[in-house]
Amino acid sequence: DGKQNGEIKLKTLFFCNLRPDKDGAFERVLAQVGLTHRQHGDQLVLVLAGEPSASVAVQFHEAGIKWCVIPEWTESNVGGAPVMNGTKVGTFSDKPTPGPSKEGIEEVEKYDAHLEPTPNLAKEGINHKKFKPNEIPSLEGHAKRGWVSTRGGPTHIENKVRPWGFVFPALKLLRQERPDVAVVHFGNELPSLALSLLAPLIGVRGVKWVWQQDQQMALPGRLTRLVSRIRLLALRFNRFVAVYEGGRAAMTARGIPDSQIEVVHNGVMDPEPEKNLAAVRQWLGEGGGSFNIDVQDRDGKSELSCESCLSILNPAAEQSLNLMSVGSMIPRKRQGVLVEVFAELVQELKSPALRLILIGDGPERAALEQQVQALGLQNQVVFLGKRNDVSRLLCGADIFIHAAAAEGCAYALSEAMAAGVPLVVTDAGAAREQVENGVNGYVVPVTDRAMFRERLKELIQNETLRQRMGEASRARWAKGFRVEDQAQAYWEIYKSRSQ
Questions:
Q1: What is the distance between the alpha carbons of residues 217 and 386, in angstroms, rounded to a whole number?
Q2: If you compute the radius of gyration of the chain from its CA atoms, what whole number of angstroms results?
Q3: Residue 69 in contact with residue 87, Cβ under 8 Å?
Q4: How far apart are CA 47 and CA 173, in angstroms?
Q5: Mean pLDDT by 10-residue block, N- to C-terminus, for the chain (499 residues)?
Q6: In whole angstroms, what is the distance from residue 18 CA to residue 361 CA?
Q7: First to last CA, the chain
């Protein structure tokens, strides 16, 4: 199993200010990083801001990950009342343990009912639903308050990040675990620096520190270059990871030596488009059939039946052409631009077969729905809300569109590539690293709405081009955007830091 005398060769303590309560792309990355550690006889220890959902907990368990929660890191409120009562710091979960009460289990089952097993688990013949309710790992703290979720689910949550709240609990964990490498992902610079400086004072020495910058970074102004917080991290951190070349450039402009920076693109699992294409497209309305996916309304209080979706998506006599976009409905994602461009193309092309499918949720959704109503597009635009099955749904897309003003390395683009879909995207973040312009899609300037429209129109009208670019997308994903490659790259960075 790769171990020497039964002992762990490398222990990585991974601090991540995240509540992994959604079976999303990043949660699968964490599981894959854990699995890669286990395959090499090493161990990944996750330190989270909230407990994982049932399905995510099973992924972590099967990947050999040990995890615990620092409740002080994020204060979550439902109706103004604090609800984060996560696992006590120092109490780790790494195997199935007694779960929550009957009421809590019912909420978990209602929310997790449509989750599918992850590829790694599926390959091993493991389905998280085989666990009995009282065997679901690490659900302590959900029993009395039911199931709450910050990223999809039955209850709206407002999160308040408390960046300094993790420092002293993290020091305790460092002393307890004695890791070779400490990684900070989704963290805050100054508290992380304080943690790294305090560690030697409590006898924790020899730890190598890695900072992972998953989000977008703008090039700094003159003042920021001199007083950047991330620049201060270089006093203690040995390695920095960006998810796109623009992130590397932004770090070097802030004074981080280029030799200390690695770029690791965000990778995704294989959605097996050849397996899922027919079923997804049937569910999207081309055969009148059904697909085993639940659809929640924007408040998560009720479910739309497949028949309701079909009534929206199924054209009367023509085969639909599905344009899909995935992303949080926040201003910088600019879904409103997509709706405007779509409206113009519907009017110009006179095609009732065109469909715009928006996946995601957020504060801009109500305005987007009003925009669709005002344009009279309610029969051609559908909102699917937050989903746990985005990678599978993308298998039913004809074209993926994304008009963000700023990005890091968007998982949604990688997922579209994995599904074998051509893309039309704005030049934000890693877009030009994910999409080779004219090969697997088009990359247009953020402000050039007319070019975006024309590139999209070109793909709508040319089925042969769509097919060729879709095949190129799938090939590009296979060469550099697989989740297995991302996890291996992270492990190699950690390993090199420990030597």
A1: 26
A2: 23
A3: yes
A4: 9
A5: 58 92 89 96 94 91 93 55 35 44 36 33 35 30 25 40 87 95 91 95 95 86 82 92 94 93 95 68 49 38 35 48 95 96 95 92 95 94 90 92 94 95 96 96 96 97 96 96 96 83
A6: 18
A7: 21
Using CA atoms, how far residue 267 sits from 128, 157, 163, 214, 483, in Å, is: 23, 28, 27, 12, 4
**Structure-block tokens of residue 87:** 């696992």
| Interatomic CA distance for residues 162 and 181, integer angstroms | 24
Its sign, for the CA torsion 213, 215, 216, 221, is: negative
CA distances to 30, 44, 82, 118, 391 from 24, rounded to whole Å, are 10, 19, 25, 10, 9
Question: Please, what is the angle between helix 411-418 and helix 25-39, to 10°?
Answer: 80
Q: Quick one: tokens of 318?
A: 């023509």
Residues 70 and 49: their CA atoms lie apart, in Å, by 5
Q: How far apart, in Å, are the Cα atoms of 196 and each of 168, 183, 191, 199, 256? A: 11, 11, 9, 5, 17
